[in-house]
Amino acid sequence: MDPVARLGLSFVITIILIALLLWLIREITRMWAQQASDEPAAGKLMSISVCPVCGGRLESHLMTRHLIVTHEMDVYEAAELVEAMRSESAQAEE
């Protein structure tokens, strides 16, 4: 085999191996990131609250939006009500 052809072939094989190695590293990191996001973190589980107006159950972080959108409550009034609910639940946990 001609030395120039051998050099060209080794160059092509090297480029292909580098591309495969980079692809493999990218797939492994993607799988690790996906696995980490699938596992719930400690303390990250959302608590469920009961709406004081309609008695419906929903996640606590959605309560202000629920009061504003569903019950057409004033923004400041809804915020005060949710803050009062959170302080009551914090006192109950102590």
Largest sheet composition: 2 strands, antiparallel
Number of H- or I-type helical stretches: 3
Radius of gyration: 28 Å
SSE-based structural type: mainly alpha
| First-to-last CA distance | 81 Å
Q: Tally the beta strands.
A: 2
DSSP strand content: 5-15%
Order of helices and strands: HEEHH
Helix content: 55-70%
The overall pLDDT, averaged over residues, is 86
Query: How many structural domains can be distinguished in the coordinates?
Result: 2
User: Quaternary status of these chains?
Assistant: single chain
Give me the side-by-side strand order of the main sheet: 1-2
- Indicate the low-confidence ranges by residue numbers: none
Query: How does the overall form come out from the CA principal axes?
Result: rod-shaped
Report on this model:
The chain is mainly α and 94 residues long. The chain folds into two domains: 1-39; 48-93. The protein has three helices and two strands. It has a two-stranded antiparallel ribbon with strand order 1-2.
